[in-house]
Amino acid sequence: MIWPLLLLVPCFLLPGTGAISFYLRPLGKKCLKEEIHKDVLVTGEYEVSEQPGLTCDLKVTDSIGHILYSKEDARKGKFAFTTDDNDVYEVCFVSKSPSDTLSFTDQLIALDIKHGVEAKNYKDVAETEKLKPLEVELRRLEDLTQSVVKDFSYMKKREEEMRDTNESTSLRVLYFSAFSMFCLVALATWQVFYLRHFFKAKKLIE
């Protein structure tokens, strides 16, 4: 039994963070999808409420089915990965039970997904590079600026691709319309000559 997917609207201008909670029906499935750019750090933290007789599997995949993280009988934990390409990434929770005849209640799932600047641990960066608080904040602002620039570059590239597609489609429609008009004119001319020949053969016209 597969339940409708939950679609997360991607945020292109700001780093992403999505803390949500929802109920997973027994023996059901719920997935979260989000489009994320290339070379972006993604972190997630989840917690699944216990329900006797039920287990919940967690799987994180990309659009072609590559498994980035998988956990059977997931209860509480974290995951992290860096995106390889601009793609739609999916986080799925699947409820399972050895018996489908028992009566269960819904499981509460809490999920906190972050990506981009929000996913980076600047405390560790400060300790590793021995940065002062002001330097850490400047580093965070620098990363945020780079993220915004990448987002705008990505949107510009998409706009160029869409414009090229529109121009190509318009050109093809123009050619098809011209070909259709040529066929109609040729067919109409053939009909005129055919009817003229037919009427002459029947001696209806000279």
- Please tell me the CATH architecture of the domain at 6-116 by its name: Sandwich
Tell me about the largest β-sheet.
5 strands, mixed
Shape: elongated
Approximate strand percentage: 25-35%
CATH top level label of the domain at 6-116: Mainly Beta
Structural class: alpha+beta
Full CATH superfamily name of the domain at 6-116: icosahedral virus
Give the % helix: 25-40%
User: Per CATH, what is the topology of the domain at 6-116?
Assistant: Jelly Rolls
Count of alpha and pi helical runs: 2
- Give the SSE order as H and E letters: EEEEEEEEEHH
Residue runs with pLDDT of under 50 for 5 or more positions: 1-17
Q: How do the strands line up in the largest sheet?
A: 1-3-8-5-6
DSSP strand tally: 9
Overall mean pLDDT stands at 83
| Structural Rg | 30 Å
Spatial separation of the terminal alpha carbons: 77 Å
Q: Can you lay out the helices and strands and say which pair or pack?
A:
Elements: E1 6-7, E2 16-24, E3 29-36, E4 41-48, E5 55-61, E6 67-71, E7 76-82, E8 87-96, E9 107-115, H1 122-129, H2 133-201
Parallel strand pairs: 1-3
Antiparallel strand pairs: 2-9, 3-8, 4-7, 4-9, 5-6, 5-8
Helix pairs in contact: 1-2
